[in-house]
Design brief:
- By secondary structure, the protein is of the alpha/beta class.
- The protein has a single domain, classed as Vaccinia Virus protein VP39 (Rossmann fold, 3-Layer(aba) Sandwich), CATH 3.40.50.
- Helices cover 26% and strands 31% of the residues.
- The protein contains six helices and eleven strands.
- The strands form two sheets. A seven-stranded mixed sheet has the order 7-6-5-8-9-11-10. A four-stranded antiparallel sheet has the order 1-2-4-3.
- α4 packs parallel to α6.
- The longest helix has 13 residues.
- The protein is globular and about 50 Å long.
- The protein binds S-adenosylmethionine.
- The site of S-adenosylmethionine has 18 residues, from α2 and β6.
Length: 221
């Protein structure tokens, strides 16, 4: 049952997290009861964090009690698993700018008191600074936006503690459809390298085509 990381389990070979909101579902995922606990299977084809773990992520900075700033929360698929992992002592700030996705995210946050929905543009951290109390331990970014690196840098400088960690999925097709993915990855990594130590680089195929997942440590100001 216990997996490689705190709060991440294996059930019949599949990844799962222990539900923080038993009896509710975030995206039609399967749930499994084990005694008094409920576990939700974590689909690597729906969640890049699940894919990154299966593709060999070596360090997992999101743990029980972590404060996480999640950029591009969409309807809460991955964010709900982050909520399971951080548990009652942690918090996940969920930034999403599409009203349609926010509509689906709200009931997920309603069922989970450790998820805070924020309807805002991640390119403008000053617009939601008032909602974020103190610094966060981890920024998770999955925005599929051409300005991905700039969004990470702006949010890290505003909200990430020194030595804090960042996880980011780079979708090469969202940045430059005509360039080779490797060239696009290098460009994004070189923009981030001044502010972050790049610890891990994971290609997400076969779960996601042309996506690179980064784990980074913030050097601080
Ligand atoms: C690939 S989806 C995220 C999927 C989600 N991370 C998951 O695994 O459940 C990208 C999301 O980022 C949002 N997004 C893109 N640019 C954004 C921005 N500048 N600010 C906030 N959200 C943004 C999109 O609306 C979309 O919902």
């Amino acid at each position: 049952m216990e997996g490689k990381f705190e709060g991440v389990f294996r059930i019949n070979g599949k990844l799962a997290t222990k539900s923080f909101a038993p009896g509710t579902r975030a995206y039609g995922e399967k749930a499994v009861r084990e005694g008094k606990d409920e576990f939700r299977l974590w689909d690597p084809y729906r969640s890049k964090l699940s894919a990154a773990i299966l593709r060999g992520l070596r360090q997992m900075p999101i743990k029980g009690g972590s404060k996480v700033l999640y950029l591009g929360a969409a309807s809460g698929t991955t964010a709900s698993h982050v909520s399971d992992i951080v548990g009652a002592k942690g918090l996940t700030y969920c930034v999403e700018f599409a009203p349609r996705s926010m509509r689906d995210l709200l009931p997920v946050c309603e069922a989970r008191k450790n998820m805070l929905p924020i309807l805002a543009d991640a390119r403008m951290p000053e617009e939601y600074a008032a909602y974020i109390k103190g610094k966060v331990d981890v920024i998770y970014e999955d925005v599929a936006d051409p300005a991905q690196a700039g969004i990470m840098l702006a949010n890290a400088s505003a909200f990430l503690r020194k030595g804090g960690m960042a996880m980011m999925a780079i979708k090469s097709q969202s940045i430059d459809v005509s360039a080779k993915p490797e060239r696009t990855y290098e460009k994004v990594v070189s923009e981030l390298a001044g502010a972050f130590e790049i610890l891990e680089r994971i290609e997400l195929s076969p779960f996601d085509k042309d996506h690179l997942f980064l784990l980074m440590r913030f050097k601080g100001e």
